Amino acid sequence: MSKLLAGRYELIEKIGEGGMAVVYKAKDRLLNRYVAIKILRPEFTQDEQFLDSFKRESQAAAGLQHPNIVSIYDVGRTGNINFIVMELVDGRPLSDFIKEKGHLDYKTTIDIAKQMASALSIAHKHQIIHRDVKPHNIMITSDGVAKLTDFGIARAVSNATMVADTSKIIGSVHYFSPEQARGAYVDERSDIYSLGIVMFEMLTGRVPFDGETPVEVALKHINDDVPSPAKLVPGIPPALDKVVLKATDKYQTERYKSADEMLEALKNVEFVTQMVGDRVFAGEKDNKLRHDENVVAPVNNKREDREQEMVVVPANSKKPKSKTDDSKKKKKIAIIIGIAAAAILILFGILYVSGIIGGGGKEVVVPDVKGMSYSEAKEVLEEKGLKIEKADEPIASQKIEKGKIVSQTPSKNSKVKKGRTVRVILSAGNTELKVPDLKGLSYNEAKTLLSEMGLQISKGDEVDSDSISEGLIASQYPAAKTKVDKGDIITVNISRGKKDAVIPKLVGTKFTSENDISEILSKYGYKLGKVSYEESYETPGTIIKQSPDAGTTAEKKTTVDIVISKAKSKATVPNLTGMTYDQAESALQSLGFSIGRVTEEENNGFTAGTVFKQYPAANSEYQTGSTVDIWIAKKGE
Fold it and tell me: For a surface tag, which of 202, 355, 495, 512 has the fewest beta carbons within 10 Å of its beta carbon?
């Protein structure tokens, strides 16, 4: 490779490398500035898929202008050399700081996480998903600014993107979202999950999931819950612990909806912890990143800036007091007390909703409010932390007097979370009977309601319904608001759900028995079909294929075939030292292996073009189908 690229960029030294590219420090002769240049590895220049990915990176990232994102200056191609010219960051990866400190204090974690959430917010607004958020891709500058780099696997999307081939999933498995690990649809919430994992590592000094193989780690992301950082390291604020756990929820719908929402949560935690002070979180170690330790300090500490701007009046500069001064002083004190009281109330509210104090999110038992007036029920429910809503029209009742509650949903003794709304129906008294609207109720709920009115119920047919969930009442006869006599029978038809439903995802599920899988499918109206086994790197006993695929719309009673993983047979890895690439490839293929990553390095102790190192090592036992990485010697310059 020439030392001068595109007649403009003078390559100085290699400063980093990744799976796809090598990064060099260079000097832009035209603008007389230092830059970083990422050059695609030679082995990928003939691969159109990698070239497309490299091109997408440059096009996607070039449009992102943000202080927490590494800037892209130029994109080019010279012969077979594809390159991107980027901002040269004066700093080190976050991974270095975590390794050096063991773990970071919660204030530094909040500061860095806020900057990353801000960076992701901009990327997501440009329909760009990073897909590889990890400490190695977060640079910390000498003045404490965190910068997100390496959009090498980012993809511009309209709404969501999909990893089509799970054998080619890109990214770092320890920071994978469950949907990345499954090879499923990926959207902005995947980056939020990865940022949550990075926060976990900053706070604890380790990743939540580890294993002997990438597949083992990926399965843990799919099946296991991320543990609480606060249970591993003392001194982490409960509210910050909740941010990490919400960001890393296995289910996308339970995570923050956007990076902006996560950023707002982090700001709330920061405000609360500043107001409360460190003493609340006993056990927090003082391991901030400080300049005097050659480590970067948190930035934007506005509180410290304000303290430095305060002016101290000398003790001997007092003026004689006057009545006017006393009056002003009293007025100031009153104002200060008022502001302090308001601040305490606001702080209490934030502490409560943030989870530092109080019991937000706890489950409560719904009380029985039947027979009560609306106001009585409202008082009882609000004491439990529940809300109340009444139906638009009252219904006739032979047992409950007018104005009292006839029925409630959820029913008494149900367990619900605080803040849930209880819907009640009031009695119109023993008047002319009108059939209530029963659609959407369960059979038992409708039976109870009709019994209160002096009416009977009869179960009719099971019917298809696009709008009513399976097992609930889809239609009735007579219709709602029809006048009837006491003792009349109301016939209800029960929904069996949509005629066509969506095949559930079975891939990744542990196969325990055919009965268990049949039970899962039966909930969706499907049946288990053919069960077969196939050698795979997946954990033995895991479902690795299904037909029809998950997400396919199909008629109920359709059979679903599954393929279950079984362990691959093992073979001894041959010694490749001294072989050419072709010889090594032939030797590996004869034993069921293939060549993985190929790296060329200067090594004058071996003939140029021959293998001088390999991984896994020769004579080790490995599963057939595995790849073997090789290092090929080249002459030094």
Answer: 512
